[in-house]
Backbone:
């Protein structure tokens, strides 16, 4: 039986019965709720973006007109979807295709009635390439100064955000914000200063170093 009026809402059907003698029953009825509105939702990466990891963690939220979103399914290309799985507010997923570049994850939500949302997506950039950089003293070499000034350059597709220094090439100070210059204390004799750069994805460069001699 077609339910009227058309559209979402509570639909009620009434029936009356007649027996062989012509007696007609009082009306009896049954109601059903029709909801054809698609669920809506959001998807966002909690993994830092850009990232140097082959997987990412996402947070998800979804609502339905009937208040019951029960399932979700994912795709890495917006065409081929994995099987529906129970709805959850977090999801960890391997990013494909493998390698560097922008990776997009799509999700569709399904409610208890069977309505499926339109695709929703989020993108993250994978960067596994180490930064490169240079270090040099602008202070005359040799010097009698107790302080030397370093000039630093560094490049990376994701942007260089931090640097860390060492006076022996083994034990490094904590990372600090990247800067184009840096003053360092000089001990008497030969000073060899090493630096490593870190990009926004967390990749750390190979150390580069510069040497200066401080005379008495």
Residues:
């Amino acid at each position: 039986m077609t339910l009227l009026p058309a559209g979402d809402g509570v639909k009620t059907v009434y029936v009356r019965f007649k027996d062989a003698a012509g007696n007609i029953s009082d009306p009896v009825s049954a109601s059903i709720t029709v909801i054809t509105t698609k669920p809506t939702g959001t998807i966002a990466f909690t993994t830092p973006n850009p990232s140097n990891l082959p997987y990412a963690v996402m947070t998800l939220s979804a609502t339905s007109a009937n208040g019951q979103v029960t399932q979700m399914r994912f795709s890495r290309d917006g065409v081929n979807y994995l099987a529906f799985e129970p709805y959850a507010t977090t999801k960890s997923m391997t990013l494909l295709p493998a390698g560097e570049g922008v990776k997009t994850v799509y999700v569709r939500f399904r409610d208890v009635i069977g309505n499926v949302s339109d695709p929703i997506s989020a993108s993250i950039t994978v960067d596994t390439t180490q930064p490169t950089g240079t270090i040099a003293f602008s202070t005359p070499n040799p010097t009698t100064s107790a302080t030397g000034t370093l000039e630093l350059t560094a490049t990376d597709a994701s942007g260089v955000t931090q640097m860390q220094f060492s006076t022996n090439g083994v034990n490094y100070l904590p990372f600090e914000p990247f800067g184009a210059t840096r003053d360092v204390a000089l001990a008497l004799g030969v000073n060899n200063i090493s630096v490593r750069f870190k990009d926004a994805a967390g990749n750390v460069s190979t150390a580069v170093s510069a040497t200066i001699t401080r005379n008495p």
Summary: DSSP finds no helices and 16 strands in the chain. The chain has two domains: 40-126, 132-214. The longest strand covers residues 101-111. Residues 40-126 form a domain with the Immunoglobulin-like fold (CATH 2.60.40.10).
